[in-house]
Amino acid sequence: MDYVYAPGRNHLFVPGPVNIPEPVIRAMNRNNEDYRSPAIPALTKTLLEDVKKIFKTTTGVPFLIPTTGTGAWESALTNTLSPGDRIVSFLIGQFSLLWIDQQQRLNFDVDVVESEWGRGANLDVLESKLASDTSHTIKAICIVHNETATGVTNNLAKVRQLLDDYQHPALFLVDGVSSICALDFRMDEWGIDVALTGSQKALSLPTGMGIVCASPKALEASKTAKSVRVFFDWKDYLKFYQMGTYWPYTPSIQLLYGLRAALDLIFEEGLENVIIRHKRLGKATRLAVEAWGLKNCTQKEEWVSDTVTAVVVPPDIDSAEIVRIAWKRYNMNLGLGLNKVAGKVFRIGHLGNLNELQLLGCLAGVEMILKDVGYPVKLGSGVAAASAYLQNNIPLIPSRI
Amino acid sequence: MDYVYAPGRNHLFVPGPVNIPEPVIRAMNRNNEDYRSPAIPALTKTLLEDVKKIFKTTTGVPFLIPTTGTGAWESALTNTLSPGDRIVSFLIGQFSLLWIDQQQRLNFDVDVVESEWGRGANLDVLESKLASDTSHTIKAICIVHNETATGVTNNLAKVRQLLDDYQHPALFLVDGVSSICALDFRMDEWGIDVALTGSQKALSLPTGMGIVCASPKALEASKTAKSVRVFFDWKDYLKFYQMGTYWPYTPSIQLLYGLRAALDLIFEEGLENVIIRHKRLGKATRLAVEAWGLKNCTQKEEWVSDTVTAVVVPPDIDSAEIVRIAWKRYNMNLGLGLNKVAGKVFRIGHLGNLNELQLLGCLAGVEMILKDVGYPVKLGSGVAAASAYLQNNIPLIPSRI
Amino acid sequence: MDYVYAPGRNHLFVPGPVNIPEPVIRAMNRNNEDYRSPAIPALTKTLLEDVKKIFKTTTGVPFLIPTTGTGAWESALTNTLSPGDRIVSFLIGQFSLLWIDQQQRLNFDVDVVESEWGRGANLDVLESKLASDTSHTIKAICIVHNETATGVTNNLAKVRQLLDDYQHPALFLVDGVSSICALDFRMDEWGIDVALTGSQKALSLPTGMGIVCASPKALEASKTAKSVRVFFDWKDYLKFYQMGTYWPYTPSIQLLYGLRAALDLIFEEGLENVIIRHKRLGKATRLAVEAWGLKNCTQKEEWVSDTVTAVVVPPDIDSAEIVRIAWKRYNMNLGLGLNKVAGKVFRIGHLGNLNELQLLGCLAGVEMILKDVGYPVKLGSGVAAASAYLQNNIPLIPSRI
Amino acid sequence: MDYVYAPGRNHLFVPGPVNIPEPVIRAMNRNNEDYRSPAIPALTKTLLEDVKKIFKTTTGVPFLIPTTGTGAWESALTNTLSPGDRIVSFLIGQFSLLWIDQQQRLNFDVDVVESEWGRGANLDVLESKLASDTSHTIKAICIVHNETATGVTNNLAKVRQLLDDYQHPALFLVDGVSSICALDFRMDEWGIDVALTGSQKALSLPTGMGIVCASPKALEASKTAKSVRVFFDWKDYLKFYQMGTYWPYTPSIQLLYGLRAALDLIFEEGLENVIIRHKRLGKATRLAVEAWGLKNCTQKEEWVSDTVTAVVVPPDIDSAEIVRIAWKRYNMNLGLGLNKVAGKVFRIGHLGNLNELQLLGCLAGVEMILKDVGYPVKLGSGVAAASAYLQNNIPLIPSRI
Fold first, then answer.
1. Which UniProt keywords apply (chains A, B, C, D) (predicted)?
2. What is the C-alpha separation between D238 and D79, in angstroms, rounded?
3. Which of C391, C393, C399 best probes binding to B when mutated, by most B CB atoms within 10 angstroms?
């Protein structure tokens, strides 16, 4: 049942699905249960309460939907908007592209603000649009916090600032798929109306749970939003929340127990420490890339991502070959370059339940692969650069002091 | 992490989620993998090929959607129909009711044919509707093969017969959630256009995969169907099937390996043997109910269900109390009576990876509970009736002969 | 990898290895760890403290030895006795026979007191031996608390009483393999010097840990005992206990975490409740046997065992055939008759993490098998008798009230 | 239940217990079974047949004993020798020391040949002893193939050569605990009479199975050997082998299925490829040590070990501090220096189911730790040296070509 066995551990460095920690695998290693018995609502109650902490919201209402990130997007849009609504959306890479495609197919009037891939959302354009939209035709701003295809993190605080500056009432919808629980994310402080992530990203669970969190303003909007929805309709969830049974349809028992375990681990480490760990891993990766003499796809320091690094390869090298060799020779998975940057970048995911020595093993592997494809890398150079930084910055493990 | 521990095994007799066999739990006990590496498409290919066997189709195209049965319903409807389309739908219990609610919310023109709960779909009414619909305004017939709330199995062959008799081109959409892989189901032979089930039912997996199978006619219809859909859109799947990468968004790696194991077990037992086993368990359950002097909610033999039995309790007894005691005293889960039959029936699910001694343990438990709530049952009477039948009908286990 | 797959759960009713509860399976689902890191000693410390509770000792010292019950026997004998030492040992069934065989091969002078199989240890003979042994040539009394082959429980309190009556200093060595943590067992109160069990019995773990507990008197004896031993030598353990690293050689990390989980479950249920549950299951089983018109191998009520029932079959039936059919047709495992009672009895194990409906499923199965082999049982009769008792005696599950 | 949680994977680089591959963890994730049903003997039969392959023997008889390496030693000695027998044994490190301690406590007349720790067995002394032992008073040669404490591999072919040269009939007993299934090992070709290993070493299983293989000559010797033994007595195993039930007492069901999976993985990779992989990892580690400017505890190239490298630290550094920091800061486990080399060496285990990027992660970690303790290592230097070698030598993964 393992189609392509290789000795030793798989080195999983795609930006999702990410490594699941052993305690979470254990928690999910179980038979089904009746989700209508008192046990599951009791468990669900703690999950809904605790999951708000990773969004940093106290007023939001979370939904744990049996779906993927794509479904979470659909849930965010259809519950808050009506067909024909104008939304401003930023195209900066493959995942924002896919979300925009969804927005268009759901019949919204999408005002696309495009940036070169490798650059962040053009907030100057947003500002001018907000400035000129005195009649408030813009119903929502849709933005990907961290574009997984290019390793670009957008400045959400700035978006909120602009909305406030122009006293614009547009809803603020954020894809936090590769950011929430890994990058600094503040739903309440930044006035985000819908934020969403997927279980297989920083939460380090299997795929299958789209986690969507709605602000009171978003919930209010959902009462009049005319987009057709049933499976993704928050109304059904809210009805069952009211009844205390929580589930309009059958949840995955395993993912619920898994989420409980995942949250417990995050709180044990401390959410702030989790975020600092991602900063450390991101920084170390970028130092390695620099030492290799390669360029980060992200064009400016302000946009660098602490969850994924897209590395630009020289023009004579096919980045897909790097990904292929990683898998065929080193039992490692790297991310492909997608769409416009296909063949031009490969991606190192460094999010989720991951530590420094895992990353250094990956970086050592990338060095050998670069050599394999003919790039004149100095072996050990990236590891040395990353180590020099890490050795100064890794804290003691609190439970072991 | 076990909120309500009790010694010994949980006796799970709700009609889903059902018991997961150990080999399937094992197969899913794993870390995430990169779904874009060659391993997952190779695995997916075998799954798509093999899953067709449980639908008994060679021409259908299956979709393994990260969703629940509710999402599978939505996938079936939105891919084949346009808003305003007239559909004939049968209301015979809570699950057909919920599907009809979805059909209405998706803006179809639903022609509801209601039966008393406990009776099957009224096919006489269907016949008259088909007979009078010479202009073919009816675009689809929607029917639940097995109504899980009342334990009623509808006659799908008869529906096909009627459609053929009147040479009616309506699409034939079937909810096989609590039937496929347990009851006799023949997608091709019965000319079903969309059939669907959920992973947590007869396949005995965790919740999280909606399995939808579309006939060539349904696929053709999907090209012109105007219902808005993105997450559930077959088009995206078909595009990735074409490319050989199979997944428009991230699947659950664990469920894929779990499905592989589940199908392997089913084929090892033999699909026909699986169906015969369900017949045996269903019959044994009904004999026990009769021995207890209680009535089956299903009003006629032609509709009895081999996957769930809804037992009518005497008017002075609250069936919810039976379910509560099962859980609180016997570590057993029975199904509640829902909606119109709330308090009036309790349900014994007997589907999925289940054997005779497990069922007899359940029946012995029900007897004690009936005594607990004051019903004058003769202890051992149901077990005796069921055993008498089973002892004559259980075959030797092929792998152990 | 499942050599003889059958649908549904395996019904495991041998008196060990027994069913492992899910939380314990989960706790053991893990990678290896370095047993010399601080984590394992910290875990071991809690285990050694807590395991004493199931022996009901405060002064004893436990050893968690990577071995089976046979190894635990050897540990008990070789650490406390010297070759040629006279010991009184009771032969009442296959397991006491095997222990006596070991005692003889270890070169002790074994004074065997034999009883008919189905009867308990002959304590009258013990009394006369003690009475006449004024020079204290008897160095140890070896007794099996519960003879697993015949379902006979010996009266340990009485043994202690006799030793006290005659102020005899013999060591009191007890095989508690199928009793400790299931039957009433009081190491300190009964002045037991070495008590032992195996992980795969009432603790409901996998095989692989022999748990031996030594009284201060036994530890004192170990200082002068001349039996040759290395692997089983307590001295090595005590040296590492002293150092706080606990392990003279590598333990099974998985079994340590498993034992932690198993003890947690036992304490959550309450040790006294665990014992009462075993009484309830034992009584129910005996009532069923009686209802079937069959005889218990145990000849007197005072010896009946609450962990295993050996059922005598009529002379024209081969009990091995019953065991074979259980496995081949019903996916159930019953215990064979061993040695003198081979072909004459089959055994129902009812120990470990087990509940009432599981047992009733087993009893229903036995009824069908009895019919299969031609015994004129009334189907349902045993289940009815057991249910009638159980329905009056099962308490509510504390965590669910 | 995780006493000392740290984010990311644990980097386990002690020379046992080693990392368990996921397919093996999965295979062991199961309930108990009746070991007397036909399934377990059928499984055992394949294991006994296949386990001989990793010893490279066709004439040997293997025993899968529920014990540790220490118990396997005892089994090897007590089954073949009698008290007072003269044996020649080589003291070259902590594990050979412990085996010699056992030999002495078992009352053999041990002729200890000591070498400086870091050197191999002194075969010149062996030669002179054999030469002078014309009356064949030496009954056995006991040698550790790979001394885990110092990373020294002895030359077994040479030992055989000497025995042959002097036509000496002494039994040849080999501890292959950290060699078999990782280093080149040829039981039949080298005329080894008893070879043994433990499950938690190169087989990459949990601890709990001592695997002992006896040559026909050893089996013959066991018929007259007078050492007292019961639990470890081969005779009992042979009796049950004869009967086809295989087990004189209860085995761990989980370890049996685990061993099946472990062997399957080894055969899939190819035993020769497994050995080559260990050579590659060993060589890479030694190159790193050299690049760091540190010395290998092993004093000559002929003795270097491909499963463990003991690294000598400068006199001003306490090697235990390196091990402590590994655990407290980097979530890595390294091996301590033991006894004579305590504080002076730390050990990197590189055996079992392990790959190159895992090792490079470890080496990168060691570099940072060396820096932490004040050793002036050039970060990246060891990784560079190891990578340069590995990049030239890692083959493509056969299943992925």
1. Aminotransferase, Pyridoxal phosphate, Transferase
2. 12
3. C391
- What is the predicted pLDDT for the residue at B1? 45
Candidate from A388, A391, A401 with C-beta closest to D372: A391
Using a pLDDT cut of 90, give the percent of chain A over it.
99
Which pair of tokens denotes residue D171? Answer: 């039994």
Answer yes or no: do B355 and C331 touch at CB < 8 A. Answer: yes
What residue segments make up the domains of chain B, in order of their start? 11-18+271-393, 22-267
Is the CB of residue B284 less than 8 Å from the CB of residue B361? Answer: no
- Nearest CB partner across the interface for A1, out of B4, B253, B260: B260
CB contact under 8 A, C4 and B397: yes
Which pLDDT score, from 0 to 100, does residue A346 have? Answer: 98
**Integer Cα distance of A34 and B16 in angstroms:** 8
The CATH code of domain C11-18+270-395 reads 3.90.1150.10
Quote the mean pLDDT of chain D.
97
Chains that contact B by 3+ CB pairs under 8 Å? A, C, D
Specify the DSSP element, H or E, that contains B242: helix B234-243
The CATH number fitting domain D11-18+271-400, selected from 3.40.1350.10, 1.20.140.10, 3.90.1150.10, 3.30.70.20: 3.90.1150.10
Helix B356-372 / helix B271-291 crossing angle, nearest 10 deg? 20
Q: Which residues of chain C have pLDDT under 50?
A: 1
Strands C152-153 and C86-91: unpaired
CB contacts of C27 in chain A (<8 Å) are 26
Confidence check: pLDDT of B284 > 70? yes
Residue-level pLDDT at D3: 67
Question: What DSSP character marks residue C15?
Answer: S
pLDDT at position A2: 59
Share of chain B above pLDDT 90, in %: 99
Whether B131 has its CB under 8 Å from any CB of chain A: the answer is no
Are the Cβ atoms of B9 and C355 closer than 8 angstroms? yes
Which of these, D347, D381, D362, lies nearest to D148 by C-alpha position? Answer: D347
Stretch 270-309 of chain D: residues touching chain B, C-beta under 8 Å: none
CATH 3.40.50.300 fits B11-18+271-393, yes or no: no
At B379 the pLDDT is 98
According to the model, what pLDDT value does residue D1 have? 46
Which of B95, B53, B9, B13 lies closest to B281, judged by CA? Answer: B13
pLDDT of residue B232: 98
Structure tokens at C241: 């206990």
Fold of D22-267: Aspartate Aminotransferase; domain 2 (3.40.640)
User: A4 pLDDT exceeds 60?
Assistant: yes
Rounded CA separation A259/A53 (Å): 13
For all residues of chain B together, what is the average pLDDT? Answer: 97
Chain Cα centroid distance, residue D334: 16
Tokens at B238, concatenated: 């078909």
Q: Cis before residue A17, ω within 30 degrees of 0?
A: yes
Residues of A in contact with B31 (CB under 8 A): 10, 12, 19-20, 25
3-state secondary structure at position B107: coil
Lookup result for tokens 């286990």:
B397
Q: Is the pLDDT of residue A136 over 50?
A: yes
Task: Please enumerate, as own/partner, the contacts of B275-281 that have beta carbons within 8 Å and a separation of 24 or more.
Answer: B275/B182, B275/B183, B275/B184, B277/B354, B277/B355, B277/C7, B278/B182, B278/B183, B278/B202, B278/B306, B278/B307, B278/B350, B278/B351, B279/B306, B280/B356, B280/B389, B280/B390, B280/B393, B280/B394, B281/B306, B281/B350, B281/B354, B281/B356, B281/B359
Helices H / strands E in chain C, number of each: 13, 14
Residue B88 has, within 13 A of its CA and on its CB side, a CA count of 24
Annotated binding site of B: 347
Distances in Å between the Cα of A45 and the Cα atoms of A38, B68, B328, D154 are 11, 21, 20, 62
Q: Is D38 on the interface with B (CB under 8 A)?
A: yes
